[in-house]
User: Fold this.
Amino acid sequence: MKQAVSRTAMVVALWRARESQRSVASRLFEDDLAQGFLDRRFRVALRVSRAPVVGSLVPWSLIDGHWTGSRGTVAVRTRYIDDALTAALRRGVEQVVILGAGFDSRAYRIPGIGRTRVFEVDHPMTQVEKKSAVARRLGSLPPHVEFVPIDFSRQTLDGAMPAAGFRATARTFFICEGVTHYLSEPDVDTLFRSVARSAAAGSEMVFTYIHRTILDGSATFSGASQTLATVGRSGEPYTFGFDPVGLSEYLAARDLALIEDVGADEYRARYLAPRGRGQEPPPSFSEPRSYGSPCRRV
Assistant:
Protein backbone atom coordinates (compact mmCIF):
# COMPACT_ATOMS: atom_id res chain seq x y z
CA MET A 1 0.00 0.00 0.00
CA LYS A 2 1.07 3.56 -0.57
CA GLN A 3 2.27 5.35 2.53
CA ALA A 4 -0.21 8.15 1.83
CA VAL A 5 -2.52 6.01 3.93
CA SER A 6 -2.62 6.90 7.63
CA ARG A 7 0.23 5.13 9.41
CA THR A 8 -1.69 5.00 12.68
CA ALA A 9 -4.62 3.35 10.88
CA MET A 10 -2.25 0.61 9.78
CA VAL A 11 -0.84 0.21 13.29
CA VAL A 12 -4.39 -0.27 14.58
CA ALA A 13 -4.97 -2.93 11.90
CA LEU A 14 -1.74 -4.66 13.00
CA TRP A 15 -2.85 -4.83 16.62
CA ARG A 16 -6.28 -6.14 15.61
CA ALA A 17 -4.66 -8.80 13.45
CA ARG A 18 -2.35 -9.73 16.35
CA GLU A 19 -5.26 -10.00 18.80
CA SER A 20 -7.17 -12.15 16.32
CA GLN A 21 -4.32 -14.68 16.32
CA ARG A 22 -4.83 -15.51 19.97
CA SER A 23 -6.65 -18.69 20.95
CA VAL A 24 -10.43 -18.64 20.87
CA ALA A 25 -10.51 -18.77 24.67
CA SER A 26 -8.25 -15.76 25.20
CA ARG A 27 -8.88 -13.35 22.34
CA LEU A 28 -11.27 -10.43 22.69
CA PHE A 29 -12.51 -10.52 19.09
CA GLU A 30 -11.76 -11.99 15.68
CA ASP A 31 -11.01 -9.66 12.77
CA ASP A 32 -10.26 -11.74 9.68
CA LEU A 33 -9.89 -8.66 7.47
CA ALA A 34 -7.25 -6.85 9.53
CA GLN A 35 -4.27 -8.65 8.03
CA GLY A 36 -5.38 -7.74 4.51
CA PHE A 37 -4.99 -4.03 5.27
CA LEU A 38 -1.29 -4.32 6.12
CA ASP A 39 1.57 -3.33 3.83
CA ARG A 40 4.62 -5.56 3.42
CA ARG A 41 6.50 -4.19 6.42
CA PHE A 42 3.56 -4.66 8.76
CA ARG A 43 2.86 -8.15 7.42
CA VAL A 44 6.45 -9.07 8.30
CA ALA A 45 5.90 -7.69 11.81
CA LEU A 46 2.76 -9.82 12.14
CA ARG A 47 4.58 -12.98 11.02
CA VAL A 48 7.43 -12.36 13.46
CA SER A 49 4.94 -11.79 16.25
CA ARG A 50 3.90 -15.43 15.93
CA ALA A 51 7.40 -16.64 16.75
CA PRO A 52 7.92 -18.12 20.25
CA VAL A 53 9.62 -15.87 22.82
CA VAL A 54 10.70 -13.08 20.46
CA GLY A 55 7.21 -12.62 19.09
CA SER A 56 6.13 -10.43 21.99
CA LEU A 57 9.13 -8.13 21.60
CA VAL A 58 9.93 -7.64 17.94
CA PRO A 59 6.86 -6.28 16.07
CA TRP A 60 6.93 -2.70 17.35
CA SER A 61 10.66 -2.41 16.71
CA LEU A 62 10.03 -3.42 13.11
CA ILE A 63 7.53 -0.61 12.61
CA ASP A 64 9.96 2.01 13.87
CA GLY A 65 8.44 3.18 17.09
CA HIS A 66 7.33 2.40 20.62
CA TRP A 67 3.72 1.42 19.96
CA THR A 68 3.43 -1.15 22.74
CA GLY A 69 1.04 0.96 24.80
CA SER A 70 -1.41 1.32 21.95
CA ARG A 71 -1.56 -2.45 21.49
CA GLY A 72 -3.52 -3.01 24.70
CA THR A 73 -5.66 0.05 24.15
CA VAL A 74 -6.70 -1.01 20.64
CA ALA A 75 -7.65 -4.50 21.79
CA VAL A 76 -9.96 -3.47 24.62
CA ARG A 77 -11.52 -0.48 22.89
CA THR A 78 -12.24 -2.61 19.80
CA ARG A 79 -14.11 -5.14 21.92
CA TYR A 80 -15.94 -2.41 23.82
CA ILE A 81 -17.19 -0.79 20.61
CA ASP A 82 -18.03 -4.18 19.08
CA ASP A 83 -20.27 -4.88 22.08
CA ALA A 84 -21.91 -1.44 21.94
CA LEU A 85 -22.61 -1.79 18.22
CA THR A 86 -23.98 -5.31 18.60
CA ALA A 87 -26.35 -4.09 21.32
CA ALA A 88 -27.49 -1.19 19.13
CA LEU A 89 -28.22 -3.55 16.22
CA ARG A 90 -30.30 -5.73 18.52
CA ARG A 91 -32.29 -2.65 19.52
CA GLY A 92 -33.08 -2.05 15.85
CA VAL A 93 -30.75 0.82 14.93
CA GLU A 94 -31.35 1.72 11.28
CA GLN A 95 -28.02 3.29 10.29
CA VAL A 96 -24.38 3.05 11.36
CA VAL A 97 -21.92 5.86 10.69
CA ILE A 98 -18.21 5.09 11.18
CA LEU A 99 -16.29 8.35 11.41
CA GLY A 100 -12.63 8.29 10.39
CA ALA A 101 -13.24 4.65 9.48
CA GLY A 102 -9.64 3.86 8.54
CA PHE A 103 -9.32 0.08 8.41
CA ASP A 104 -12.29 -0.59 10.67
CA SER A 105 -13.92 -3.84 9.51
CA ARG A 106 -17.09 -3.82 11.62
CA ALA A 107 -19.25 -3.23 8.54
CA TYR A 108 -18.15 -6.66 7.29
CA ARG A 109 -17.75 -8.80 10.40
CA ILE A 110 -20.37 -7.89 13.02
CA PRO A 111 -23.26 -10.40 12.87
CA GLY A 112 -26.45 -8.91 11.41
CA ILE A 113 -24.90 -5.64 10.24
CA GLY A 114 -25.56 -6.52 6.60
CA ARG A 115 -29.22 -5.66 7.18
CA THR A 116 -28.31 -2.11 8.24
CA ARG A 117 -27.08 0.80 6.13
CA VAL A 118 -23.46 1.59 7.01
CA PHE A 119 -21.66 4.81 6.10
CA GLU A 120 -17.85 4.77 6.26
CA VAL A 121 -16.63 8.36 6.53
CA ASP A 122 -12.93 9.02 5.99
CA HIS A 123 -10.21 10.70 3.96
CA PRO A 124 -10.48 9.69 0.28
CA MET A 125 -6.88 8.38 0.05
CA THR A 126 -7.44 5.89 2.84
CA GLN A 127 -10.79 4.91 1.36
CA VAL A 128 -9.22 3.98 -1.98
CA GLU A 129 -6.92 1.48 -0.26
CA LYS A 130 -9.68 0.29 2.05
CA LYS A 131 -12.07 -0.49 -0.80
CA SER A 132 -9.37 -2.30 -2.73
CA ALA A 133 -8.47 -4.50 0.25
CA VAL A 134 -12.11 -5.29 1.10
CA ALA A 135 -12.91 -6.18 -2.52
CA ARG A 136 -9.89 -8.51 -2.66
CA ARG A 137 -10.94 -10.25 0.53
CA LEU A 138 -14.70 -10.48 -0.10
CA GLY A 139 -14.78 -10.53 -3.89
CA SER A 140 -16.78 -7.29 -4.11
CA LEU A 141 -17.88 -4.36 -1.98
CA PRO A 142 -21.03 -5.20 0.01
CA PRO A 143 -24.09 -3.19 -1.10
CA HIS A 144 -25.02 -2.15 2.43
CA VAL A 145 -21.85 0.00 2.79
CA GLU A 146 -21.58 3.55 1.48
CA PHE A 147 -18.18 5.27 1.41
CA VAL A 148 -18.31 9.00 2.16
CA PRO A 149 -15.06 10.94 1.53
CA ILE A 150 -14.56 13.84 3.94
CA ASP A 151 -11.89 16.11 5.39
CA PHE A 152 -13.01 16.96 8.93
CA SER A 153 -10.97 20.16 8.90
CA ARG A 154 -12.86 21.47 5.85
CA GLN A 155 -16.26 19.78 5.80
CA THR A 156 -19.04 19.18 8.30
CA LEU A 157 -20.71 15.85 8.78
CA ASP A 158 -24.24 17.13 8.31
CA GLY A 159 -23.12 18.90 5.15
CA ALA A 160 -21.61 15.78 3.56
CA MET A 161 -23.96 13.00 4.63
CA PRO A 162 -27.32 13.81 2.96
CA ALA A 163 -25.92 13.35 -0.55
CA ALA A 164 -24.74 9.87 0.45
CA GLY A 165 -28.25 8.79 1.37
CA PHE A 166 -28.08 9.38 5.12
CA ARG A 167 -31.56 9.75 6.67
CA ALA A 168 -31.78 12.30 9.46
CA THR A 169 -35.01 10.71 10.73
CA ALA A 170 -33.49 7.25 11.25
CA ARG A 171 -32.02 6.02 14.51
CA THR A 172 -28.27 5.96 14.02
CA PHE A 173 -25.24 4.54 15.80
CA PHE A 174 -22.14 6.71 15.36
CA ILE A 175 -18.64 5.33 15.91
CA CYS A 176 -15.77 7.79 16.37
CA GLU A 177 -12.76 5.63 17.29
CA GLY A 178 -9.28 7.14 17.33
CA VAL A 179 -10.40 10.36 15.64
CA THR A 180 -10.61 13.16 18.21
CA HIS A 181 -6.90 12.68 19.08
CA TYR A 182 -5.86 14.12 15.72
CA LEU A 183 -8.28 17.04 15.32
CA SER A 184 -8.08 20.61 16.53
CA GLU A 185 -10.34 21.77 19.35
CA PRO A 186 -12.61 23.72 16.94
CA ASP A 187 -12.85 20.70 14.63
CA VAL A 188 -13.87 18.42 17.51
CA ASP A 189 -16.50 20.95 18.52
CA THR A 190 -17.82 21.10 14.95
CA LEU A 191 -17.88 17.31 14.66
CA PHE A 192 -19.82 16.76 17.88
CA ARG A 193 -22.32 19.49 17.05
CA SER A 194 -22.76 17.98 13.59
CA VAL A 195 -23.51 14.58 15.09
CA ALA A 196 -26.11 16.09 17.41
CA ARG A 197 -27.76 17.96 14.53
CA SER A 198 -27.76 14.85 12.34
CA ALA A 199 -28.96 12.32 14.90
CA ALA A 200 -32.60 11.36 15.29
CA ALA A 201 -34.02 10.72 18.75
CA GLY A 202 -32.73 7.42 20.12
CA SER A 203 -29.42 7.66 18.28
CA GLU A 204 -26.13 6.95 20.06
CA MET A 205 -22.46 7.72 19.60
CA VAL A 206 -19.39 5.97 20.94
CA PHE A 207 -16.06 7.77 20.80
CA THR A 208 -12.55 7.40 22.17
CA TYR A 209 -10.30 10.13 23.50
CA ILE A 210 -7.02 10.73 25.28
CA HIS A 211 -6.65 12.44 28.63
CA ARG A 212 -5.96 16.14 28.11
CA THR A 213 -3.28 16.24 30.80
CA ILE A 214 -1.09 13.98 28.65
CA LEU A 215 -0.80 16.76 26.10
CA ASP A 216 -0.09 19.59 28.54
CA GLY A 217 2.31 17.50 30.65
CA SER A 218 0.45 17.96 33.92
CA ALA A 219 0.04 14.20 34.48
CA THR A 220 2.11 11.09 33.82
CA PHE A 221 0.72 7.90 32.33
CA SER A 222 2.53 4.68 31.50
CA GLY A 223 3.62 4.62 27.87
CA ALA A 224 2.37 8.12 27.11
CA SER A 225 5.69 9.82 26.38
CA GLN A 226 6.83 7.07 24.00
CA THR A 227 3.53 7.05 22.15
CA LEU A 228 3.44 10.83 21.87
CA ALA A 229 6.95 10.80 20.40
CA THR A 230 6.08 8.02 17.97
CA VAL A 231 2.92 9.59 16.60
CA GLY A 232 4.84 12.83 16.26
CA ARG A 233 7.52 11.15 14.17
CA SER A 234 4.86 9.52 12.03
CA GLY A 235 3.49 12.93 11.08
CA GLU A 236 0.20 12.32 12.89
CA PRO A 237 0.67 13.94 16.32
CA TYR A 238 -2.00 13.97 19.01
CA THR A 239 -3.57 17.41 19.12
CA PHE A 240 -6.66 17.21 21.33
CA GLY A 241 -7.79 15.52 24.54
CA PHE A 242 -10.63 15.70 27.04
CA ASP A 243 -10.57 16.16 30.79
CA PRO A 244 -12.87 13.38 32.06
CA VAL A 245 -14.06 15.60 34.92
CA GLY A 246 -15.65 18.05 32.49
CA LEU A 247 -16.76 15.56 29.85
CA SER A 248 -20.44 15.38 30.80
CA GLU A 249 -20.74 19.17 30.83
CA TYR A 250 -18.94 19.45 27.48
CA LEU A 251 -21.34 17.00 25.87
CA ALA A 252 -24.44 18.56 27.40
CA ALA A 253 -23.49 21.90 25.84
CA ARG A 254 -23.58 20.14 22.47
CA ASP A 255 -26.96 18.44 22.96
CA LEU A 256 -25.42 15.09 23.93
CA ALA A 257 -25.79 13.16 27.19
CA LEU A 258 -23.08 10.95 28.66
CA ILE A 259 -24.12 7.33 29.22
CA GLU A 260 -20.85 5.76 30.28
CA ASP A 261 -17.14 6.60 30.46
CA VAL A 262 -14.95 3.51 30.78
CA GLY A 263 -11.29 3.38 31.78
CA ALA A 264 -8.50 0.88 32.32
CA ASP A 265 -9.78 -0.73 35.53
CA GLU A 266 -13.19 -1.43 34.04
CA TYR A 267 -11.68 -2.72 30.80
CA ARG A 268 -9.47 -5.11 32.73
CA ALA A 269 -12.34 -6.41 34.87
CA ARG A 270 -14.81 -6.67 31.99
CA TYR A 271 -12.63 -8.16 29.26
CA LEU A 272 -9.14 -9.21 30.33
CA ALA A 273 -9.57 -10.87 33.73
CA PRO A 274 -12.28 -13.34 32.57
CA ARG A 275 -9.83 -14.58 29.93
CA GLY A 276 -6.93 -15.00 32.33
CA ARG A 277 -5.29 -11.79 31.11
CA GLY A 278 -5.83 -9.63 34.16
CA GLN A 279 -2.12 -9.08 34.68
CA GLU A 280 -1.55 -7.52 31.27
CA PRO A 281 -0.41 -3.87 31.28
CA PRO A 282 -3.34 -1.44 31.37
CA PRO A 283 -4.45 0.30 28.20
CA SER A 284 -2.13 3.16 27.28
CA PHE A 285 -2.61 6.29 29.41
CA SER A 286 -6.15 5.26 30.31
CA GLU A 287 -6.15 6.09 34.01
CA PRO A 288 -8.67 7.33 34.73
CA ARG A 289 -11.44 6.82 32.16
CA SER A 290 -9.62 7.66 28.96
CA TYR A 291 -11.51 5.55 26.45
CA GLY A 292 -14.96 4.34 25.58
CA SER A 293 -17.55 7.05 26.04
CA PRO A 294 -20.92 6.40 24.42
CA CYS A 295 -23.28 9.35 24.31
CA ARG A 296 -26.79 9.90 23.11
CA ARG A 297 -28.68 12.86 21.81
CA VAL A 298 -30.87 14.55 24.43
